[in-house]
Write a structure and sequence with these properties.
378 residues; globular; Aspartate Aminotransferase, domain 2; 12 strands; single chain; Aspartate Aminotransferase, domain 1; 3-stranded antiparallel β-sheet; binds pyridoxal-5'-phosphate
Length: 378
């Protein structure tokens, strides 16, 4: 039996909706399915405005553009994240300032933000790792006193909550991902969540090549023209059709992921002690969306041996982020070894187990059984 780390699957109505999109005679951006995704996501998040984008990366790009990030600005973000969290702001000329993560949740360590602030700090970007919330009360308080914006990289956190409130609703903007590896997917896709009404109109313009085409479609102007900078950030309605089908199946998807996650935790608790591994920590005030199941092995040697052990048995277990501050680009921004010791440590020790929406009971049992045959001496 071969079990990949991730396997994309259809949840139900994807092909029917794609066919309908062709029937509508509109498969470019901002068609009927895009509109329906917007309405559904605005309802689910309770936010002012949602705009589908071609990726989470492009939603982050839009955030940086909308906030007028530029040369001389600094952006605070964790080193333990995907490159796009940094790139969106670096692309505009800002300097990334990497802050370490907490050893428990692997989220931006809120108590280390203040010492990285400067008069140039423009944005703070929390990343909710595995969809477990960052300490948003403290982060928002720090941002307020520093007069910095908060942009949530919520790529992992769709349906996650912090003290009962949906992730994605805490910053000026949040960026969602519907990439193949995320809980809800259309292959490549994303969304920008806008929590501040003042940004809505300009967001629509920047997303539509700097034109007021959205106003034109609403009948507010009688022709559309070039009014601002911008690019093309809107996905095809075919992708929105796929996305809508997945979003409508969210309860079944989330229930299945929860069952897999809980099964891993229940079955591996005792084994983990025997190999000095630790399981994910989810604080009581965080509702997680079951995006990842990871293990922290005692050291890099054990982690690599464990990945090799599973690979030899046809199971795709994978490590995760390499510290951004030590990447060639990170070092060009001043990153040095030792800057973020927790990030450097957990990056070496973390491994993620297969977890995907149509994982069968047999596959799950098989992974658990093979994991348990790993002993520290291997
Ligand atoms: C997946 C991911 C992204 C990028 O998402 P895309 O939709 O592929 O652009 C950004 N940040 C984090 C934390 C991610 O996990």
């Amino acid at each position: 039996m071969r079990i990949p780390f991730n396997r994309p699957s259809m949840a139900g109505n994807e092909l029917r909706y794609v066919t309908e999109a062709f029937g509508n005679g509109h498969v470019s951006g901002d068609g009927e399915f895009t509109r329906r995704c917007h309405v559904l996501l605005e309802e689910l998040f309770g936010v002012e405005k949602v705009l589908l984008t071609t990726s989470c990366t492009s939603a982050l790009d839009l955030s940086a553009l909308l906030l007028g990030v530029g040369p001389g600005d600094e952006v605070i973000l964790p080193s333990f994240t995907f490159v796009s969290t940094a790139n969106a702001f670096v692309l505009r000329g800002a300097r990334p300032v990497f802050v370490d993560v907490r050893p428990d949740t692997l989220n931006l360590d809120e108590e280390q933000i203040e010492r990285s602030l400067s008069p140039r700090t423009k944005v703070i970007v929390p990343v909710h790792y595995a969809g477990v919330a960052c300490e948003m009360d403290r982060i928002r308080e720090i941002a307020r006193s520093a007069e910095a914006f908060v942009v949530e990289d919520n790529a992992h956190g769709l349906f996650g909550r912090y003290k009962g409130r949906a992730l994605g609703t805490f910053g000026a903007f949040a960026a969602q991902s519907f990439h193949e590896t995320k809980n809800i997917s259309c292959g490549e896709g994303g969304a920008l969540l806008i929590n501040d009404r003042a940004f809505i109109e300009r967001a629509e313009i920047l997303r539509e090549k700097g034109t007021d085409r959205s106003r034109f479609f609403r009948g507010q102007v009688d022709k559309y023209t070039w009014v601002d900078v911008g690019s093309s950030y809107l996905p095809s309605d075919l992708l929105a059709a796929v996305l809508l089908a997945q979003l409508e199946a969210r309860e079944a998807i989330q229930a299945r992921r929860r069952a897999i996650w809980e099964a891993y935790r229940g079955a591996l608790e005792d084994w983990a002690v025997t190999v000095s591994a630790r399981l994910p920590i989810v604080p009581d005030h965080c509702d997680q969306p079951y995006h990842l199941f990871y293990l922290l092995m005692p050291d890099r040697r054990a982690r690599d041996a464990f990945i090799g052990h599973l690979k030899a048995r046809g199971i795709g277990a994978v490590f995760h982020y390499l510290p951004l501050h030590l990447s060639p680009m990170g070092q060009r921004s001043g990153g040095r070894p030792g800057d973020c010791p927790v990030t450097e440590d957990v990056s070496d020790r973390l491994v993620r187990l297969p977890l995907f929406n149509d994982m069968t009971a047999g596959e799950l049992e098989h992974v658990i059984a093979e994991v348990k045959t790993f002993r520290e001496a291997d």
